[in-house]
Amino acid sequence: MRSTSRLVLFLGLLCPLVLAGCTGSADQDDPASSQAAATSAAPSGPVAAVCDKVPAGPAAAPAGAVSVAVTDDFAAKVRDAAGATTFWLAPGSHHLGDDRFDQVQPKDGDVFIGGPGAVLDGRKINQYAFTGHAKNVKITNLTVQNFVAPRDEGVVNHDSGDGWVIQHATIQDNDGAGLMAGVKQQVLDNCLRRNGQYGMNAFSADDDITGLVVRGNEITGNNTGDWEKKIDGCGCTGGIKFWSVNGADVIGNWVHDNRGTGLWADTNDNDFLIEGNLIENNDSAAIIYETSYNAVIRNNTIKRNNLVDGRDYADRGDSFPTATIYISESGGEPRVKARTSKLEIYGNVFENNWNGITLWENADRFCNSPANTSSGVCTRLQPDTAKCAAPAIANKPLYDDCRWKTQRVDVHNNRFMLQPSAIGCESTCGRMGLLSNFGTYPDWSPYKGDVVQQAITFKQGNTWHDNAYVGPWTFIATDMSHVLGIGEWEGAPFNQDARTTYEPGGGG
After folding, report:
1. pLDDT for the residue 506
2. 451/81 Cα distance (integer angstroms)
3. Cα dihedral value 319, 325, 328, 332, nearest 10
4. pTM score
5. Where are the domains of the chain?
6. Where does the signal sequence lie (predicted)?
7. Residue 149 and residue 201: Cα distance in Å, rounded?
8. Rounded Cα–Cα distance for residues 120 and 96 (Å)
């Protein structure tokens, strides 16, 4: 193994390849060309500074619209109107009734437009604002606040109706999730802030959510309820949580200062594009992609994330590389239809986060295992939980199809910068991870021992290459006992980060 690596200064490089949206590597014969993609089309400042700048709606009711005065019974007006009606809410604070279940139930095609300063205020009385299964509802230029949805429920589009468009809205200071999502929902140019659990909870109990677009939003200050401390390990907090979403574009958002993870895809999500976002100052990871499939994570700027969780791990003596992008039991799967058959992470700029990217696969977590925290849920390849049992699971195809695999992950043309003094870190930050645990559980598991450790590290097509590092980075491979320098990481048997540049002193 080599003990040192090339020391190449790469500041100020441009990326015509990534700007053009390419996914291929740069010229492998030219180190400077290969690093050009690392400074990508990632944003350098807030891409969606929306909060307190949401444009005002029309000062008068549009032609044909039903006017709703602040003294009107808003819910009754909607109930009494035909479908596909446009409602204009006059300036001022609108209220529903005094029962916690008073709510607005749109009909198909209804449109709700707020006038300048129009607010729908739940007064900490009403649980929900807009509910029901109506399709193609549109809400614009309206502030929705102070509703008290229970945990895991949402205030706007509570029942995950299809085809909703929410644009130029402010959804703030609610309990639960500010917003739920349905099929082909568009969430555009909104302020989702200070909600008790999530800015948005993309979950439907009925079927996959497909065709979801989340673009140009500011998502900030969510999880004011600090639910992870109330329910240890609940995995139920953050800016946005996605569950069983099959096709999502998450583009050009400013995701910042959330108490928890910024963007979290969890359990059988597939076909994600996470592109051009600024993700910064979130307490936990910037992005978690967990027990899911096929994604492109590109051209994002990712700054000062995971500092709270990272310090918590360090303070309790846990050396696991808690990550800024955490890929957990997720990867590319050609048999699951998507725009890509890989999980590709490229063209991103990382600056002063607590650790970098960790690829993890829990050897004990698979369909029908008691260690599967997504209890009762099986994989997209084998949806029948009962089939994933001994002795059949020990043989193909169930041996492969009953577990979510961290495979076909391609980490390339990213730039990782770390100055430990800037984040108050002494030794446990600045790490990449490619590892698993030693399989032990349950007793009928066919994945015991180092089977998964060897697979994730050497057999499942997980690669780093053409990246650029500034600062004191280390690498953990196979298991927690293998902490490597860049030369060992590049050398046999790991053979990672070909054509990568490394400036260890650049981190200060």
Report:
1. 55
2. 62
3. -140
4. 0.92
5. 1-47+267-324+339-365+404-508
6. 1-20
7. 12
8. 8
